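call fold(seq) -> tokens
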Amino acid sequence: MILIVSQSLMAQARGVPESFADLAERISPSVVNITTSTTVESRTGPQGIVPEGSPFEDFFREFQDRNGRPDRPRRSSALGSGFVISEDGYIVTNNHVIEGADEITIEFFEGFELPAKLVGTDPNTDIALLKVEADLPLKYVNFGNSDTARVGDWVMAMGNPLGQGFSVSAGIVSARNRALSGTYDDYIQTDAAINRGNSGGPLFNMDGDVIGVNTAILSPNGGSIGIGFSMASNVVTKVVDQLKEYGETRRGWLGVRIQDVTEDMAEALGLAEAKGALVSDVPEGPAKEGGMLAGDVILSFDGVDVEDTRQLVRVVANTQVGKTVRVVVNREGKTETLRITLGRREEAEGAVPASQTVEPEAPATMEMMGLTLAPLDDELRAQLQLDEGAEGLAVTAVDETSEAFEKGLREGDLITEAGQSAVTTLSDFEDRIETAREAGRKSILLLVRRGGDPRFVALSLDEE
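ret:
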């Protein structure tokens, strides 16, 4: 008995919960099962074709009636999870749980059901907001601060795994700031068991606050192997607030194409460290109106230091549309502060045409740094589908053993800048390289365009 008490006290001292029962009992009433119903066309399998008046005609008609005619719609249902965030009936779940649904039914822990209406969705973060009308105030949970969650913290997942009904699983935070495929991804990775049907359910900390929305699992067989992902609550809360107010998201838009600053790029730009976001293009939009230029390195946005492009995208998206912000950039070694009024990203999406890559013939005129370069003429402009006024040097061949090939340069690319200055002739290119060498640079920064899409590439000056 003394041994048991001692072990219990030691576990509490280490922060290991003796039981999750009290926490589960307190917050379970806020977790819901979600059933959706969708009208889909019936399967269109092979049909029996018999002559009219055949003795088999009645048999085939009865068989098709029993198994569903191809032109007869049928109902399809799906299961998921969610949780109540207010006593007046707002419910959060995943977008993929309710996407395309004609009817949404919410089953509560106490056993009653209510129909739900869709308030709004955000496919970018896979979040949806629902609303039910209840006669009495509903039990709900609050969002916590996901930024305070540390790797190793205990967490608890709740939901409706594999349609089995209310279920609880526990584990720890395995990793933070995971990105899967979305622009705004900020996932908490956990080893708490998450299976199909858990989608849209909450991930709780030990205070009973929601720090994530269970969204995806990594699995070779469809079941939990201890690698689950929950969208961080600090992303979800901003989305939910906008869906509640507007029925849609309204993200800030800066209007630039950016890329991460690598070590060799930092050296070529004369930066002390590889931080910030390098602007590769400034199309029409807020940034251009605010004076931003291609080649600027964004160091700070609205008072927040910029580490990389992923962070900048999230910070901009979370900033109010129409707000005028201060953006600090490094431009040719000097720091400048720009004032830019943000637009709305949803209105700007799709404005940039898709890129096209055309392989030109290779009239080589100069070989340098593993590249064969040629100045643009009317024939090359036509082959590269460029405007008549386009300027630069066409890459007509790339040595597959060169650094340029390793960094992605290919035949058909167009180099428009070297050392942050425009190049239109081969002598321009040679001059930029010589200038960089005289300045003690070990690499030179090239602005490369492929099908109109720009990116910066730093190449070593040691490679001839």
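The chain is about 20% helix and 35% strand.
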